[in-house]
Amino acid sequence: LDSTVRVIMRPDDANIVGNVHGGTILKMIEEARCIIGTRHCNTQTGDRCVAALARVERTDFLHPMFIGEVAHVSAEITYTSKHSVEVQVNVLSENIVTGAKKLTNKATLWYVPFSLQNVAKIVEVPPIEYSSPEQEEAGKKRYEAQKLERLETKERNGEIIMSVSLPEPYTVAFSQSSLIHLIGPSDCTLHGFVHGGVTMKLMDEVAGIVAARHCKTNIVTASVDAINFHRKIKKGCVITISGRMTFTSNKSMEIEVFVDADPLVEAEKGKYRAVTAFFTYISLDKDNKPHPVPPLKVSNAELVCSVI
To answer: Which residues pair with 218 in a beta bridge?
Structure first.
């Protein structure tokens, strides 16, 4: 099974210098996988279902995409377990004037299908046919590895980002940022839970603000490490997306992003950590060439927190 989505990039999809936002591309990637994942999981008889995003593996932004180019997003199912689907996605950008195309992104995503009749019920996934036993074994190894890493990531979900008054420039506190968003119907799947692509786009926006505050230059997404979706976010929740700088080199910045969900209607359930990820950004000069990144100043207190 495969699926392709084509979208022309508009001014609303890009930053002030015309580079398409990484979050826009992540949202397109998630939409393409939603089509193929849900189609596959409904090829068998039984409960109708929707495939929910559980994890995004490291995603590299190989080349920038610009306003006016056409994004070709193709998705293919490469592995299935009893309750999960692995989808691999490639993104090509096309200059429709010259016809030139280039590969801009490659991503691997994992999904779990939930019944439309009972959102707490996980539906079994129809198996796919593999070209060889080696291909199936390689997929199984990827499945076990991502499952283990997701469990390890959950152990850090108690961390919070503390605000600091009048922070010193180039410190973690100086650039840390948060965004608050109310989950509405247009953000959600048929189940009433937020699309993974909506969440990823908001996470990229916050990470971009953190990077821009630190550098004071044009910045672009270079890569995204594994994005782990720990718990579903329901319509009507208020989500807080928080980002902080965790590392800088001469050419890049690493930013950690948390998503916390607060159910307004079911307040007794309390606030919870829903999604976590690390984004890598690079700084660009006026000619879109890599620009040196100011070193991060880390206080003793921040060092202690990072160790804990």
So the answer is: 284
Strands (E) located in 43-126: 49-56, 59-61, 70-80, 85-94, 101-115
How many alpha carbons fall within 13 Å on the CB side of residue 229? 22
Which pair of tokens denotes residue 56? 């995004």
CA distance 89 to 167: 41
Query: How confident is the model at residue 209, as a pLDDT?
Result: 96
pLDDT score at 165: 63
The single residue listed with the structure tokens 């990470």 is: 207
11 DSSP 8-state letter: G
pLDDT at position 304 is: 38
User: Is 12 assigned a catalytic role?
Assistant: no
pTM of the predicted protein model: 0.85
Q: What distance in Å separates the CA atoms of residue 15 and residue 94, rounded to the nearest whole number?
A: 19
Q: Please list the ranges in the chain whose pLDDT falls under 70.
A: 1-2, 154-166, 300-308
| Catalytic residue flag (residue 204) | yes
User: Is residue 193 a contact partner of residue 54, using CB atoms and an 8 Å limit?
Assistant: no
Mind listing the domains of the chain with CATH numbers? 5-145 (3.10.129.10), 172-307 (3.10.129.10)
Q: Of 42, 105, 187, 204, which one is the catalytic site residue?
A: 204
Residue pLDDT, tens place only, 278-302: 999 999 998 889 999 999 998 755 5
